[in-house]
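Email to the structure team, subject: Flagellin model.

Hi all, the expression group asked for a predicted structure before they design truncation constructs. Nothing fancy, just the tokens so they can compare against earlier work. One-line instruction: predict Flagellin, return tokens.
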Amino acid sequence: MLSLHTNAAALSAQNSIGRTQSSLSTSQTRLSTGFRVNSAMDDAAGLQIATRLKAQTSGMAMAMRNTQNGISMLQTAEGALDETTNILVRMKDLATQGADATSTTKDGVALQAEFDALTSELSNIVNNTSFGGQSLLRGTATATGTVGTLTAAIKFQIGASSDETMTVDLATGTELATMHTDLKGGAGGYDDSGVPIAAAGSDITTTTAANGAIDKLQKAIESVGKVRSALGAAANRLDHVYNNLSNISTNTKAATGRIMDTDFAAESSSMTSNQMLLQAGTAMLKQSNSTSSLVMSLLQ
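Reply from the structure team: attached below.
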């Protein structure tokens, strides 16, 4: 129908141009931001899923940092006990030397002097080994300080949810308490409370006393080794936790990217197509607007 009041062809062209313009604007937005979903209108369900995945990956990234910090803390304690073992081995050597009949009284005095110094260093290592300002190995609380972190069960947050935790407990199994007891038995002046040493080490100036110290020091070495073993096992587990978190995080980020990221090849093609359609629609709108002039030719 040829009409002056209603130009159906122009209206159709305008609607087509509007839809094409909207699609072109969406493509340009996606290409400029790099995201396929820039608002909930783009993909309501996808945005919800992607948001949940992003929250999970963010939590896992922090959990990965937690596991690395936990490994560092445990390695700090284990390194201190490594040196403690070296000291105990040297003390046992001194006791073994002092227990021999060839050792003179002067030899015993010299051996005792080194033994006392090593006892002082044992106390120093245990009382002052710390991580981030927290004492790790100190045994008992005093007015000058608190007990060490490892003397109670400690909980590491190793995942993005509240249930994902790992507990390292050297208290229930009494490994740490036994170690302190055996250290005191092998080195009489040893003190784990953080206060200055009040007495010298065990007496090794006589062959009898030195011989009695040998087994006690061996027991202390074994107790320290047991604690080191527990710390090493926990650190190894945290290392595996880190590797697993890394794997989960990588795949979760990939899934998020498939929802949120722009496919530049597809979107570029869509933009080119929309640009051509916009040009064609504009040309047809111009043609449709000239249709009304035909009415005048009928009236002449």
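The radius of gyration is 39 Å. The chain has one domain: 47-259. Ping us if the truncation boundaries need rechecking.
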